[in-house]
Design a protein that fits this description.
Two copies of one chain form a homodimer. Chain A folds into two domains: 116 residues, Alpha-Beta Plaits (2-Layer Sandwich); 134 residues, Pseudouridine synthase I, catalytic domain, C-terminal subdomain (Alpha-Beta Plaits). In chain A, helix 3 packs across helix 4. Chain A has six helices and ten strands; from the N terminus they run βαββαβββαβββααβα. By secondary structure, chain A is of the alpha+beta class. In chain A, strands 1, 2, 3, 4, 5, 6, 7, 8, 9 and 10 form a ten-stranded mixed β-sheet that branches. At the A-B interface, helix 2 and strand 4 of A face helix 2 and strand 4 of B.
């Protein structure tokens, strides 16, 4: 009998060419490394479906994937078993058996992304991989005002790099906030879905607003006009992290409490 | 005229053979990399004196060093100037001019070290370099009780690996605490000085106490007996960070407010 297994996965994306496999063994992806580790664990070829196709260099604390397998390994043993096959920069946090038709991408109700800046005079070895270094003060209140314009259903055509294949550019954002935590400034946004490079264009725009180089009003203007050039540059990938993916009824589980959480 | 410059330095020690230069170019040290960067900045050879000789793989958020130079670079420009010459994993946070007889090691009143464990079922890519992974629950209250026995003036002969050259093994600990922060457990200790591997033996012992493999009473017993074998194993270096070094009157400065802080 085939089972459908959902995994919550964390990764440091620094060393990878993004989530999505590109069929090039010289360019490792999160998907290809996960598939190889799962194939060794399950002793059969495995096809991994990811909720979010994160770019090269983007990290995840709560990426969700699913795969079908005939392996009889008890689901609660999956995280430890797969983790012994994975490198240090990709780890499985949780595993759960889900209904056969669960699909990590199609079933996702929302995704939450976070962009982080290190705002101080000198760079930090400890944030080098995870935050964009900004050696000038930023106005967090202005950034927050700009970010709140993202909330609601809008046509985000202006917030897209060429190369994304989506037909509709309408998405719904459920919440958007900007806050300071010591030397860090975080931007977090939850939405129904995101266009290609959308969060990084949002982050690049918010930084320019915070530095006083652009007005917060550029956001409603660009939402109305659909013009990419009214926004800031695309922020580099290493400041971005996929935080969580939400599903109906606790992730497509019959009994969410039974999932092998490792919290 | 020669000036004496004090620097506060942060580093990720993963890629280095400790702080202290060993005269082997194939084994880079924090000291050798700092000296090379400062020599390029000051355009003359520079000898760096460090407050704490951290082991290979140990990190620092507040290491303090000093060096003498005839360079006329204004002190407030030192952090940015040196940082352009340093790799991502070593960065200068602050610079200040100090009296000619200031010595980063001899003048230090106390040093604060922190040891961090990641206590949960699965390892984390984000803490892989900075915390020891512990996949079993620990009793933080027992660890705290054991740690409090460190406070005061004691003969720490039992808390030393062979290889340390100190004659006296008496040290004074000003505070010691253990606390939980989400999935992390931290042990932080401030003392007048530390013997070779002393904090790592303390941390290894506290973990065994937390796991129920050793009683908190082993600490006063080992302090009385001086027997290394009554304590736990030496914890691995990557969980350890030198947090701060304290000096009289704000670091040997005439006017601490004038230091080029980058907080």
């Amino acid at each position: 009998m085939t089972r459908n297994i959902k995994l919550v996965v964390e990764y440091d994306g620094t060393g990878y060419c993004g989530f999505q496999d590109q069929g090039r063994p010289d360019r490792p992806t999160i998907q290809s490394v996960l598939q190889e580790a799962l194939a060794r664990t399950c002793q059969e070829p495995v096809q991994v479906i990811g909720a979010g196709r994160t770019d090269a260099g983007v990290h995840a604390r709560g990426q969700v994937v699913n795969f079908h397998t005939r392996s009889r390994i008890p689901v609660e043993r999956f995280p430890a078993a797969v983790n012994t096959q994975l490198p240090w920069d990709i780890k499985v946090r949780e595993a759960a058996e889900v209904p056969g038709d669960f699909h990590a991408r199609y079933w996702a109700l929302s995704k939450t992304y976070r962009y982080t800046w290190l705002v101080r005079a000198t760079p930090s070895p400890f944030w080098h991989r995870y935050a964009l270094f900004v050696p000038r003060p930023v106005d967090v209140e202005k950034m927050r005002r700009a970010a709140r314009h993202f909330v609601g259903e809008h046509d985000f055509a202006a917030f897209r790099s060429t190369g994304g294949g989506s037909k509709s550019t309408v998405r719904r954002m459920y919440r958007a906030d900007v806050w300071r935590e010591n030397d860090l400034v975080h931007f977090e946004i939850e939405g129904s879905g995101f266009l290609y490079n959308m969060v990084r264009i949002m982050a690049g725009t918010l930084l320019e607003v915070g530095l006083g180089r652009r007005s917060a009003e550029c956001v409603p203007k660009a939402l109305a006009s659909g013009r990419r050039e009214e926004l800031g540059s695309t922020a580099p990938p290493h400041g971005l992290t996929l935080m969580a993916v939400a599903y109906p009824d606790g992730g497509g589980l019959e009994n969410p409490e039974e999932s092998a959480s490792t919290g």
